[in-house]
Write a structure and sequence with these properties.
By secondary structure, this protein is of the alpha/beta class. The chain has eleven helices and eleven strands. Bound molecules: adenosine-5'-diphosphate. Adenosine-5'-diphosphate binds next to α4. The site of adenosine-5'-diphosphate has 17 residues, from α4.
Amino acid sequence: MSKQVTKIGVLTSGGDAPGMNAAIRAVVRTGIYYGLEVYGIVRGYQGMIEDNIFHMDSKSVANIIQKGGTILKTARSKEFFTPEGRQKAYENLQKHGINGLVVIGGDGSFRGAQKFSNEFDIPCIGLPGTIDKDIAGTDFTIGFDTAVNTAVEAIDKIRDTADAHDRLFIVEVMGRDAGYIAMHSGLATGAENVLIPEQKTNIDEIVMTLTEKEKRKKLVNLIVVAEGDEYGGATEIGKILKDRMPNADIRVCILGHIQRGGAPSCIDRNLASQMGYYAVESLLQGRNNVMVGIVNNEMNYIKLDDAVKQKQTVSDEMLKIIKILAS
Ligand code: ADP
């Protein structure tokens, strides 16, 4: 039987995502509602190691629900990969009497949380905070909706200029290992094709389709590429296509970090608020090493290990629809 949780720590780790602040707010205020003491840990696991930990009250999270980024900052910590680093982190938590942890982050952060809670008697609950949506056991992750809407807004603008010049634009969106931003923004902007890490890229087929469209005078085309596609992103794809189609007017645009920033969407704020609430409830119920997800609008628990290993499956049908609708 695990000990009753009385003091909890909350941190954001790894890549930042819009909506993390709403999740922090929910953890802090739910914790206080249930009579817990809540501590903020600054700069993720590195802050745990460096004892960058402070007491939070209801006011500490005032006026942040609408803000992008994370008030707790985030970091990648090499030291946390080592047993010595995790030992230091544990000692610092003990010093403050923290006996439960909420980790808001992506798959890497969950691997860290899992190791930590296996080694020490501190239960860890994960909240999926990543724009990449590459985590199983939840329909959406905190930040994905905002990031994809930012991409859509930017691609719409590119489409206007592509249309004015009859150009083919190759737009790179974020996603080193996952193609969800590319797929969702590609479908929403009427892209010709999306190229994602989960699938092989067939350059011959792309050239054939574009050439056929050129004959039909369909000259405005968009290809959305995830940064981690087989060829390594839009710049490489652009070079290859320019080589294969010397007469086409081809431009490359890399959207980059704008996809991480900005005010979280309503969906992300609501998701983060619910997940933060459930994270505290799960700690009080004695759960450990699980991620809180939302599936079909209902709360869902999945082991951290499974959340990281299983991934979400890429919908072949969605890719097919994108191609059909762009024809
Ligand atoms: P994300 O959570 O966005 O996937 P990272 O993969 O960078 O981000 O992971 C965030 C941090 O989690 C790392 O910097 C490290 O401190 C910790 N971490 C990741 N994997 C492990 C691991 N296998 N063991 C211990 N700590 C880990």
